[in-house]
């Protein structure tokens, strides 16, 4: 009954992850509540995907703890659909056989592909394939959904449409979400909270609320990232791929 007693979607304490001698994650703390949408930004190579993989249980960790109540679902930049499986089979992968087609049909309908159950991945556009990947994640009813730049390879318009769809899906299913992205505006459009990763830990946090204007949050993030000098912040496109002027 009380939302206060509900366990978070994930609780990370003093996480350490090394590759050989190199410590990529160094004592990182992070908690994501169910229904909370968190975006993670940071310079290329700072360890965002490493963190996501640790949360997904895909890689071992070298210290600390990751507590998640269920098995997280992950959507990657590339759709990772199996070419020899129909769309509904792809969505049902790993699901109990009984009722699988019905559940896949519901999930595909949710992403606007309810009439393509028996179609094949090769017949899909990039955006459609990512929608199937989302359906495959959501059919698992995850407490924690991990998104590793899932929209990065899409054209700008398709990306905006995907943002709208993801917002609707998250509002309905209410998993905790961690979105790894390079796109400041994507983070601002989708997240309740934006984290900045640096030196193996969370270096900065912005909680978006009615009191914080998107413009102010954007200026703060860009300043933190050192993307552009202060006088040019407001009128410049927000992408981490830019270098300081
Ligand atoms: N399997 C691996 N073995 C050794 N080093 C690795 C491995 N995977 C990642 N690294 C290194 O760890 C660091 C963090 O990589 P990671 O992919 O997590 O960064 P990222 O922030 O996601 O980068 P990007 O934004 O470019 O995707 C990088 O320096 C990378 O070279």
UniProtKB/TrEMBL annotation:
GO molecular function, one term: ATP hydrolysis activity
Gene name linked to the record: ssuB1
PANTHER family named among the record's database cross-references: ALIPHATIC SULFONATES IMPORT ATP-BINDING PROTEIN SSUB, TAURINE IMPORT ATP-BINDING PROTEIN-RELATED
Family: Belongs to the ABC transporter superfamily.
Keywords, alphabetical: ATP-binding, Cell membrane, Hydrolase, Membrane, Nucleotide-binding, Translocase, Transport
EC number(s) stated in the UniProt entry for this protein: 3.6.3.-
Catalytic class of the enzyme: hydrolase
Record Gene3D superfamilies: P-loop containing nucleotide triphosphate hydrolases (3.40.50.300)
Name under which the protein is recorded: Aliphatic sulfonates import ATP-binding protein SsuB 1
PROSITE patterns documented for this protein: ABC_TRANSPORTER_1, ABC_TRANSPORTER_2
UniProt domain ABC transporter: residue ranges: 10-224
InterPro entries linked: AAA+_ATPase, ABC_transporter-like_ATP-bd, ABC_transporter-like_CS, ABC_transporter_ATP-bind, P-loop_NTPase
Domain of life: Bacteria
């Amino acid at each position: 009954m009380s939302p206060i007693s509900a366990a978070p979607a994930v609780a990370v304490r003093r996480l350490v992850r090394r590759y050989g001698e190199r410590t990529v994650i160094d004592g990182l703390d992070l908690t994501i509540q169910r229904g909370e949408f968190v975006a993670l930004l940071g310079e290329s190579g700072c360890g965002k995907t490493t963190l996501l993989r640790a949360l997904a249980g895909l890689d071992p960790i070298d210290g600390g703890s990751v507590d998640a109540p269920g098995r997280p679902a992950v959507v990657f930049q590339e759709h990772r659909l199996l070419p020899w499986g129909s769309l509904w089979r792809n969505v049902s992968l790993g699901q109990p056989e009984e009722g699988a087609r019905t559940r896949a049909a519901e999930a595909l309908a949710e992403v606007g592909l309810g009439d393509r159950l028996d179609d094949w991945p090769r017949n899909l556009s990039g955006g459609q394939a990512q929608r199937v990947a989302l359906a495959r994640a959501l059919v698992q009813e995850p407490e924690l959904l991990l998104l590793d730049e899932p929209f990065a390879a899409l054209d700008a318009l398709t990306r905006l449409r995907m943002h709208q769809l993801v917002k609707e899906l998250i509002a309905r299913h209410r998993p905790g979400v961690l979105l790894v992205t390079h796109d400041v505006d994507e983070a601002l459009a989708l997240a309740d909270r934006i984290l900045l990763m640096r030196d193996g830990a969370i270096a900065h946090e912005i909680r978006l609320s009615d009191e914080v204007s998107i413009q102010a949050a954007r200026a703060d993030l860009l300043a933190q990232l050192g993307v552009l000098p202060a006088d040019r912040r407001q009128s410049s496109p927000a992408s981490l791929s830019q270098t300081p002027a």
